[in-house]
Amino acid sequence: MTERVLALLDGTLADPEAPLLRADDLGVVRGDGLFETILVIDGVALELEPHLARLARSAAMLDLPEPDLDAWRSCAHTVIDAWRGGREMVLKLVLTRGPEGAGEVTGFATGAPVPASLLAQRRDGIAAVTLTRGIAPDLAGQAPWLLLGAKTLSYAMNMAALRHAATRGGDDVIFTATDGSVLEGPTSTVVIAQGATLRTPPAETGILSGTTQGALFRSAAAAGWHTSVEPIAVDELATADGVWLVSSIRRIARVRTLDGIRLPDAGLTSELGGMLRDAALSVAGR
Ligand code: PLP
Questions:
Q1: In contact, 237 and 182? CB cutoff 8 Å
Q2: What is the predicted pLDDT for the residue at 282?
Q3: Residue 247 CB–ligand 1 contact under 6 Å
Q4: How far away, in angstroms, is 36 Cα from ligand 1 center?
Q5: Helix (H) / strand (E) containing 8
Q6: Is the minimum distance from the CB of 200 to ligand 1 under 6 angstroms?
Q7: How does residue 284 score in pLDDT terms, banded at 50, 70 and 90?
Q8: Domains of the chain, each with CATH number or no CATH
Q9: Best exposed site among 17, 34, 127, 265 by fewest CB in 10 Å?
Q10: Could you write out the DSSP letters of every residue in 11-63?
Q11: Is residue 173 within a helix (H) or strand (E), and if so which, with residue range?
């Protein structure tokens, strides 16, 4: 039973254990490239089209050639068809600027099991800490070279934030802007509930536009919730009826404590999880 799958962008399967990249690939030496991480359940890639649309947006922000989305769809399905692991698979699409001076991008897709740490977050929730990202919430529009909101391969800072959180007893992070507004997690979108309203911060703050948050809000609106995309002050987290980190593989994880303080729990996590499942069923394979 193979637990890892690798396909190249031309749709051919390759050995996931064999070397793949040239040592001068700009994705490796500069983090100059982008990626998407997609959950596949029972062979269905959730929110595939929103993920592909974001791949194309990220490529445009990096001035990479426009991705051939049909080739990516077919590469994704090659991985899905070759998977012999469990019901859930992490599908990752990676596109780099390619080897230095070659003028040709590198593209591949992998399939792998869901990491145990994210399964634990789904089940047990999260102890989160707030960390500053050190940017003003209106910087993204003024400084496109910062690539805020693109899903680039340059995640070293996000991973460093997670390690820093661990030194403070945290499992995860909620980044804040210099004005004290909420941004996102290193690999997730922040969603809060207040009464009958679900809220999340706007993409204009330079955060990644989340496909999971998009699916959740679509389903929540259909179930009669109000949804609102507007700035959230960090102080509002302490009094919300619930705070969650949502992302493709984690799905939904409740923030139990923030900076060591227990957050209120109105018991909404399973309802929101159900709405995410409904969203997945209603547009399976989109
Ligand atoms: N924000 C960041 C920085 C992320 O890396 C991710 C996903 O990994 C998200 C938000 C959530 O996006 P999605 O729901 O599309 O997985």
A1: yes
A2: 78
A3: yes
A4: 9
A5: strand 5-8
A6: no
A7: low
A8: 5-114 (3.30.470.10), 118-284 (3.20.10.10)
A9: 17
A10: S-EE-TTS--S-TTBHHHHS--EEEEEEEEETTEETTHHHHHHHHHHHHHHTT
A11: strand 172-176
pLDDT at 225 over 60: yes
Distance from C-alpha of 23 to C-alpha of 58, rounded to nearest angstrom? 24
Distances (CA, A) of 112 to 4, 38, 108: 5, 11, 13
What are the phi and psi torsion angles at 223 (to 5°)? -90, 5
Atom of ligand 1 nearest to the CA of 184: 1
* Contact 58 CB / ligand 1 (< 6 Å): no
Residue 283's pLDDT band (boundaries 50, 70, 90)? low
Q: Say how many Å lie between the CA of residue 187 and the centre of ligand 1.
A: 5
Q: CA 229, CA 266: separation in Å to the nearest integer?
A: 21
Name the residue with tokens 């859930």. Answer: 88
Residue 130 has pLDDT above 80, yes or no: yes
Q: Is the pTM of this model over 0.85?
A: yes
